[in-house]
Amino acid sequence: METMMTVVGSGPLVSCDGPRAAAAAKEQTLVNKTSSSSSSSSSSRLHSKFKPATSVVPSRVGVFWGNEKRAWDCFGKQFVFRKGLKTGVQRHPLTPSKLAIGRFPKGVSTTVMELFCKTDTEHCGAIFEDVPHVTDWLPDLQTYPNPLKFNPAYSAVKQYFVENDAVVTKDAVVKMTTPWEGIHFRRAGPREKIYFRPEEVKACIVTCGGLCPGINTVIREIVCSLWFQYGVRDIIGIVGGYRGFYARNTQTLNPKVVNDIHKRGGTILGTSRGGHDTMKIVDSIEDRDINQVYIIGGDGTHRGADLIYQEIKRRGLKVAVACIPKTIDNDIDIIDKSFGFDTAVEEAQRAINAAHVEAESADNGIGVVKLMGRYSGSIALYATLASRDVDCCMIPEAPFYLEGAGGLFEFVYRRLRENGHVVLVVAEGAGQDLVAQTLESNELIDASGNHLLRDIGHWLSQQMKDHFSKLYKEPVTLKYIDPTYMIRAIPGNAADNVYCTLLAHSVIHGAMAGFTGFTAGPVNNRHCYIPIARAVETQRHVNVSDRMWARLLSSTNQPSFFHDKDLQKRNVMIQTENGDEFTEEEYETNGDSEVNGYTDNGSENLNTEDAEQPALVTTIPPADPNVSQNNHAP
């Protein structure tokens, strides 16, 4: 019998599972902790001889087999471990599955300790955020050979099965001095051993939340992959979202039923918001003998899925819960992007092109296009960059104001003088504070708990008409286009269809391998498994201080509307929402600060004498023939 311990670097310890940490094993002596002969269920998922490298968790975790004095990182650099309670050594009890790829044989306790490099000055700080496994509460489960071994379609593939020590780093760009630091996730893909006998699997698929291009493609690929790759024959669809578990009938799914659904928009299973009742749902899962649950939805759906997983774990059921992230706004953090996003950007350009044609064909033409983006303006950002016909793009992350020097009205007036027309793109979540100043504040929420947004597109169009009709003799010709529901309802394009296929394959491989409570998605273009709670911990926002937003400003030549201090304060607010640490010294401003005569909310400060006011003209001059009509950067 061999000795095994886990050693972790001195960086901040990140727990990916609070309840598991609370139930962590007590600290044990560091020497001669031996295990009984490893059980077949656990040891089968560990290498018989662990290689002297910590590719498991680069330089944060060292796994010892019979030797307590050395550890290696993934670059072969040797570390010296200081045993005992010497100065600088700290003990922190954690459970094995937090930080080690392999499952630990029964009876082996682990101790997380500080790890020093040979120089005694360099510390390590890699973090591995693992996903749960059904053996966490059912340790004696039997394993089965993966049927893909005998699948002729994969017979020519070399190293098709993913090794248990393969991880994906969250940050692709690292420092040369500490390339091993950062967060890592378990890489997705088929495992050599599976924990579900295919003929005993009863899988269900449910879709929740709003529509998105590509949902039917995901459904199709889950069904076909389970059927043809693993030989699963019992697959059902839950009709009508979460409430369908206990209030609706199910639909039998097979390759013939889903054969051509990828050519249609929407979802063949139907969807709804709300309706989540954890106990009723898990009761239905247990009563129907379902042992694999595939859930397609956004952040609210994921939170509901996490509650389902927790209740299944509490009851000790052999059920895998796997999620596929769905959000057309692309606001789920960690993963590179959500499926349907590419299709949405592509379709949004059709609306922008129509608005451009309308505006260009009329005197003083203004085209306004409202796109999706409740809290994140990603679709508006990328559609604007791809189109090159947009004069100004407004998103929730970048506040703007209408009247006064440097405001939107002044910019539109100036662009009409130069080009004779203007095209504006506004995300649905932009300018909500401005709308609230003129409309009654009704804080309504939908069934998913989201605040109902006011129609910024219609409001902005009306404000434009009123402003220019009052101040100028010649009115503008304004066309407002809202393609929101047209974009949501179309099928996925070629790129999204391929992406949906990869997502479906990832989740079925993970579920068959016994992983649960996870969502699948690409991180740095490598698919991996992410704990559900971690995936929806924060939302992705457009960073208006990075290069992508600068590229948009360069493309449209639009003003940023707010000064650097205001944008810096805005970014600090977003970082605070995402849980990032900061100090008040990082910006020198407060809620009542004034910049060039304007307060933080963009309203004009009438008491500021030196605030520059726009000159009042009586008509909008025609476009200057000497001014280039193409105002966009190449």
UniProtKB/TrEMBL annotation:
Pathway: Carbohydrate degradation; glycolysis; D-glyceraldehyde 3-phosphate and glycerone phosphate from D-glucose: step 3/4. The active site is at residue 329. Residues 203-508 form the Phosphofructokinase domain. The keyword Membrane does not apply. ATP binds at residues 210, 273-274, 298-301. InterPro entries: ATP_PFK, PFKA, Phosphofructokinase_dom, PKF_sf, PyroP-dep_PFK_TP0108. Keywords: Allosteric enzyme, ATP-binding, Cytoplasm, Glycolysis, Kinase, Magnesium, Metal-binding, Nucleotide-binding, Transferase. Its cofactor is Mg(2+). Residues 578-591 have a biased composition (Acidic residues). Mg(2+) binds at residue 299. Allosterically activated by AMP. It catalyses: beta-D-fructose 6-phosphate + ATP = beta-D-fructose 1,6-bisphosphate + ADP + H(+). The keyword ATP-binding applies. Its EC number is 2.7.1.11. Substrate binds at residues 327-329, 372-374, 428, 485-488. The record marks 300 as: Important for substrate specificity. It is found in: Cytoplasm. Catalyzes the phosphorylation of D-fructose 6-phosphate to fructose 1,6-bisphosphate by ATP, the first committing step of glycolysis. Belongs to the phosphofructokinase type A (PFKA) family. PPi-dependent PFK group II subfamily. Atypical ATP-dependent clade 'X' sub-subfamily. Homotetramer. This is ATP-dependent 6-phosphofructokinase. It comes from Sphagnum jensenii.
